[in-house]
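Tutorial, part two.
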Amino acid sequence: MEFQDVVRRRRMIRRYDPDRPIPPEVVDRIVDNGLRAPSGGFSQGWGFLVLDTPADVELFRAAATPPENPERWFSATVEAPLLIVPMANKSVYLDRYAQADKGHDDRSDAWWPAPYWDIDTGMASLLMLLTAVDAGLGACFFGIPAERVDTFRTEFGVPAEFNPIGAISIGYSDEPARDLSSRRRPRTDVVHRGRWQPPADTP
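Running the prediction step on this input gives:
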Protein backbone atom coordinates (compact mmCIF):
# COMPACT_ATOMS: atom_id res chain seq x y z
CA MET A 1 0.00 0.00 0.00
CA GLU A 2 1.25 3.50 -0.80
CA PHE A 3 2.30 5.49 2.27
CA GLN A 4 -0.24 8.26 1.65
CA ASP A 5 -3.00 5.63 1.49
CA VAL A 6 -1.84 4.20 4.83
CA VAL A 7 -1.99 7.64 6.45
CA ARG A 8 -5.37 8.44 4.87
CA ARG A 9 -6.92 5.14 5.99
CA ARG A 10 -5.61 5.24 9.55
CA ARG A 11 -8.37 5.66 12.12
CA MET A 12 -9.26 4.13 15.45
CA ILE A 13 -11.09 0.81 15.00
CA ARG A 14 -12.89 -0.65 18.00
CA ARG A 15 -14.71 -3.69 16.59
CA TYR A 16 -12.99 -6.65 15.00
CA ASP A 17 -13.92 -9.88 13.26
CA PRO A 18 -13.59 -12.46 16.07
CA ASP A 19 -13.10 -15.36 13.66
CA ARG A 20 -10.05 -14.03 11.80
CA PRO A 21 -6.73 -14.56 13.58
CA ILE A 22 -3.71 -12.48 12.60
CA PRO A 23 -0.93 -14.51 10.96
CA PRO A 24 2.17 -14.73 13.20
CA GLU A 25 4.40 -13.17 10.54
CA VAL A 26 2.13 -10.11 10.45
CA VAL A 27 2.31 -9.80 14.24
CA ASP A 28 6.10 -9.95 14.01
CA ARG A 29 6.14 -7.24 11.30
CA ILE A 30 3.97 -4.94 13.41
CA VAL A 31 6.27 -5.33 16.41
CA ASP A 32 9.51 -5.14 14.41
CA ASN A 33 8.43 -1.91 12.70
CA GLY A 34 7.66 -0.38 16.07
CA LEU A 35 11.22 -1.10 17.12
CA ARG A 36 12.42 1.12 14.26
CA ALA A 37 11.09 4.24 16.00
CA PRO A 38 13.53 7.01 16.93
CA SER A 39 14.60 7.34 20.55
CA GLY A 40 16.59 9.97 22.41
CA GLY A 41 20.24 8.96 22.63
CA PHE A 42 19.19 5.70 20.96
CA SER A 43 18.16 4.74 24.49
CA GLN A 44 15.28 2.49 23.33
CA GLY A 45 13.81 2.70 26.79
CA TRP A 46 10.66 0.81 25.96
CA GLY A 47 9.08 -2.60 26.32
CA PHE A 48 6.13 -4.19 24.53
CA LEU A 49 3.84 -6.86 25.96
CA VAL A 50 2.20 -8.91 23.18
CA LEU A 51 -1.09 -10.59 24.11
CA ASP A 52 -2.44 -12.83 21.35
CA THR A 53 -4.55 -15.48 23.04
CA PRO A 54 -8.18 -15.16 24.18
CA ALA A 55 -7.13 -16.00 27.74
CA ASP A 56 -4.56 -13.19 27.83
CA VAL A 57 -7.00 -10.68 26.34
CA GLU A 58 -9.58 -11.64 28.96
CA LEU A 59 -7.00 -11.29 31.73
CA PHE A 60 -6.11 -7.86 30.39
CA ARG A 61 -9.77 -6.77 30.46
CA ALA A 62 -10.12 -7.91 34.05
CA ALA A 63 -6.85 -6.30 35.15
CA ALA A 64 -7.25 -2.97 33.32
CA THR A 65 -10.91 -2.19 34.03
CA PRO A 66 -12.03 -0.39 37.21
CA PRO A 67 -14.99 -2.10 38.89
CA GLU A 68 -16.79 1.24 39.18
CA ASN A 69 -18.38 2.45 35.94
CA PRO A 70 -16.61 -0.08 33.70
CA GLU A 71 -18.70 1.10 30.74
CA ARG A 72 -16.53 4.24 30.62
CA TRP A 73 -13.49 2.24 29.55
CA PHE A 74 -12.72 0.55 26.25
CA SER A 75 -10.56 -1.87 28.23
CA ALA A 76 -13.79 -3.39 29.59
CA THR A 77 -15.14 -4.38 26.18
CA VAL A 78 -12.14 -4.74 23.90
CA GLU A 79 -12.28 -7.98 21.93
CA ALA A 80 -9.39 -8.31 19.51
CA PRO A 81 -7.13 -11.15 18.42
CA LEU A 82 -4.09 -9.03 19.34
CA LEU A 83 -3.26 -6.54 22.07
CA ILE A 84 0.11 -4.83 22.39
CA VAL A 85 0.87 -2.86 25.54
CA PRO A 86 3.66 -0.31 24.94
CA MET A 87 5.60 0.65 28.06
CA ALA A 88 8.18 3.35 28.76
CA ASN A 89 11.18 2.95 31.05
CA LYS A 90 12.32 6.36 32.29
CA SER A 91 15.32 4.96 34.13
CA VAL A 92 16.94 3.82 30.87
CA TYR A 93 16.96 7.43 29.65
CA LEU A 94 18.33 8.79 32.91
CA ASP A 95 21.12 6.21 32.82
CA ARG A 96 21.92 6.92 29.16
CA TYR A 97 22.09 10.69 29.58
CA ALA A 98 24.31 10.40 32.66
CA GLN A 99 27.02 8.92 30.43
CA ALA A 100 30.03 11.01 29.48
CA ASP A 101 29.08 11.56 25.81
CA LYS A 102 25.83 13.26 26.82
CA GLY A 103 27.38 15.94 29.01
CA HIS A 104 25.53 15.20 32.25
CA ASP A 105 27.06 13.85 35.43
CA ASP A 106 23.94 12.65 37.27
CA ARG A 107 20.56 11.08 36.63
CA SER A 108 18.50 14.19 37.27
CA ASP A 109 15.35 14.65 35.22
CA ALA A 110 15.10 18.37 36.03
CA TRP A 111 16.54 19.52 32.70
CA TRP A 112 14.33 17.36 30.47
CA PRO A 113 11.91 19.66 28.57
CA ALA A 114 9.48 16.79 27.95
CA PRO A 115 9.16 13.09 28.96
CA TYR A 116 10.95 11.65 25.95
CA TRP A 117 10.62 8.11 27.31
CA ASP A 118 6.85 8.44 26.82
CA ILE A 119 7.19 10.35 23.53
CA ASP A 120 9.52 7.75 21.99
CA THR A 121 7.26 4.89 23.08
CA GLY A 122 4.34 6.78 21.55
CA MET A 123 6.20 7.08 18.24
CA ALA A 124 6.83 3.33 18.30
CA SER A 125 3.11 2.84 18.92
CA LEU A 126 2.23 4.98 15.90
CA LEU A 127 4.51 2.90 13.69
CA MET A 128 2.63 -0.18 14.89
CA LEU A 129 -0.72 1.47 14.10
CA LEU A 130 0.46 2.37 10.59
CA THR A 131 1.88 -1.11 10.00
CA ALA A 132 -1.46 -2.62 10.97
CA VAL A 133 -3.21 -0.47 8.36
CA ASP A 134 -0.61 -1.43 5.75
CA ALA A 135 -1.37 -5.09 6.50
CA GLY A 136 -5.09 -4.58 5.93
CA LEU A 137 -5.94 -4.50 9.63
CA GLY A 138 -7.67 -2.06 11.96
CA ALA A 139 -6.19 -0.85 15.23
CA CYS A 140 -6.97 1.40 18.17
CA PHE A 141 -4.74 3.08 20.75
CA PHE A 142 -6.55 3.44 24.08
CA GLY A 143 -5.72 4.31 27.67
CA ILE A 144 -5.37 2.18 30.78
CA PRO A 145 -6.92 3.78 33.89
CA ALA A 146 -4.18 5.04 36.21
CA GLU A 147 -5.65 3.25 39.20
CA ARG A 148 -5.39 -0.11 37.39
CA VAL A 149 -1.74 0.11 36.33
CA ASP A 150 -0.43 -1.68 39.42
CA THR A 151 -2.99 -4.47 38.98
CA PHE A 152 -1.98 -4.80 35.34
CA ARG A 153 1.70 -5.03 36.32
CA THR A 154 0.96 -7.69 38.95
CA GLU A 155 -1.17 -9.86 36.66
CA PHE A 156 1.39 -9.87 33.85
CA GLY A 157 4.62 -9.77 35.88
CA VAL A 158 5.70 -6.36 34.55
CA PRO A 159 8.63 -4.77 36.44
CA ALA A 160 7.81 -1.56 38.31
CA GLU A 161 10.11 0.59 36.18
CA PHE A 162 8.00 -0.04 33.07
CA ASN A 163 5.01 2.28 32.77
CA PRO A 164 2.26 1.45 30.24
CA ILE A 165 1.38 4.50 28.17
CA GLY A 166 -1.76 2.76 26.86
CA ALA A 167 -2.63 -0.30 24.81
CA ILE A 168 -3.14 -1.12 21.13
CA SER A 169 -5.90 -3.43 19.95
CA ILE A 170 -5.43 -4.93 16.47
CA GLY A 171 -7.59 -7.09 14.24
CA TYR A 172 -9.59 -7.27 11.02
CA SER A 173 -12.08 -4.43 11.12
CA ASP A 174 -15.76 -5.21 11.65
CA GLU A 175 -16.79 -1.55 11.42
CA PRO A 176 -18.41 0.24 8.47
CA ALA A 177 -16.30 2.85 6.74
CA ARG A 178 -16.78 6.39 8.07
CA ASP A 179 -15.82 9.75 6.67
CA LEU A 180 -14.34 11.82 9.50
CA SER A 181 -13.07 14.66 7.33
CA SER A 182 -15.80 17.05 8.50
CA ARG A 183 -14.67 16.58 12.11
CA ARG A 184 -11.06 17.51 11.51
CA ARG A 185 -10.07 20.94 12.71
CA PRO A 186 -9.17 23.28 9.85
CA ARG A 187 -5.49 23.48 9.05
CA THR A 188 -5.61 27.23 9.62
CA ASP A 189 -6.56 26.58 13.26
CA VAL A 190 -3.61 24.35 14.04
CA VAL A 191 -0.78 25.16 11.62
CA HIS A 192 1.13 28.41 12.05
CA ARG A 193 3.86 29.51 9.64
CA GLY A 194 6.70 31.79 10.61
CA ARG A 195 5.00 33.07 13.77
CA TRP A 196 2.18 31.81 15.97
CA GLN A 197 0.55 35.22 15.83
CA PRO A 198 1.32 38.22 13.63
CA PRO A 199 3.23 41.01 15.36
CA ALA A 200 1.10 43.54 17.16
CA ASP A 201 0.60 46.81 15.33
CA THR A 202 2.94 49.54 16.53
CA PRO A 203 2.12 53.25 16.45
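The mean pLDDT is 92. In part three we will examine how such features are distributed along the chain.
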